[in-house]
């Protein structure tokens, strides 16, 4: 983030390899993190991963597979390391729901810790009516504290006083829209950085219909970084 003066993560939710690699190369210079949903790619193959790793080297960003694991420890271990995607081999960070209890972290940790990976817990979500609030969020924070060897932070809209050192990444960020028609709710980069978020996650705001990903990535990078600099001054 410091090297690239960027707290922007792009959520690259496109469904073909070519689009994925094309946009990743275009936005690469402006991002600290590329967030993937690898299971939405229609033509996923090992070549995509090889090319993604090359782009990672070229542009210097971390890869976050937004897999949102949510099962018992034994199952998530396999989902993380095996199957078609072999996520543990290429994703620097992943995320998980706290709903199954501590076992989910223990399972993911068995795979991820030896590979020097990190985990984010979903403490809050951006979507309307979501249930990750109140006591659930509190319990998630406590769970993170019990696994600080592997949990590096949260998906959330704000920083928690009791663990300021854990990173906060925030989806549901847009400069132009306040919602989509499927329950997504947006805040501005300024809003979320002000609340203590460290990294803004932007998807369709960057590559949506009629957008130029380079222009938008620069715009969001500047908005996010300037909000951060402003927060430092206050
Ligand atoms: P958008 O196009 O900027 O709305 O994309 C947001 C991305 O963040 C998308 O990949 C979601 O899966 C992801 N996301 C989210 O929107 N809200 C959440 O609470 C979580 C993830 Br967790």
Automatic annotation (TrEMBL):
It comes from the Eukaryota. This is 4426_t:CDS:1. The lineage of its organism: Eukaryota, Fungi, Fungi incertae sedis, Mucoromycota, Glomeromycotina.
């Amino acid at each position: 983030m410091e090297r690239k003066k960027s707290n922007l993560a792009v959520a690259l939710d496109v469904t073909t390899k070519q689009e994925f690699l094309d946009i990743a190369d275009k936005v690469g210079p402006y991002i600290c993190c590329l967030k993937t949903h690898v299971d939405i790619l229609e033509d996923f193959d090992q070549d995509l991963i090889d090319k993604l790793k090359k782009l990672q080297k070229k542009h210097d960003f971390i890869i976050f597979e937004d897999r949102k694991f949510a099962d018992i420890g034994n199952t998530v271990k396999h989902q993380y390391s095996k199957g078609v995607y072999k996520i543990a081999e290429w994703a620097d960070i992943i995320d998980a729901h706290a709903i199954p209890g501590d076992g989910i972290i223990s399972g993911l940790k068995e795979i991820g810790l030896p590979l020097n990976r990190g985990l984010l817990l979903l403490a809050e979500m951006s979507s309307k009516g979501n249930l990750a609030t109140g006591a659930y969020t509190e319990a998630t924070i406590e769970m993170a504290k019990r696994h600080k060897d592997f949990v590096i932070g949260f998906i959330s809209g704000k920083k928690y006083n009791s663990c300021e050192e854990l990173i906060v990444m925030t989806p549901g960020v847009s400069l132009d829209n306040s919602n989509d028609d499927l329950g997504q709710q947006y805040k501005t980069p300024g809003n979320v950085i002000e609340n203590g978020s460290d990294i803004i996650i932007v998807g369709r705001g960057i590559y949506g219909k009629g957008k130029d990903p380079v222009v938008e990535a620069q715009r969001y990078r500047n908005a996010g970084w300037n909000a951060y600099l402003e927060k430092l001054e206050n």
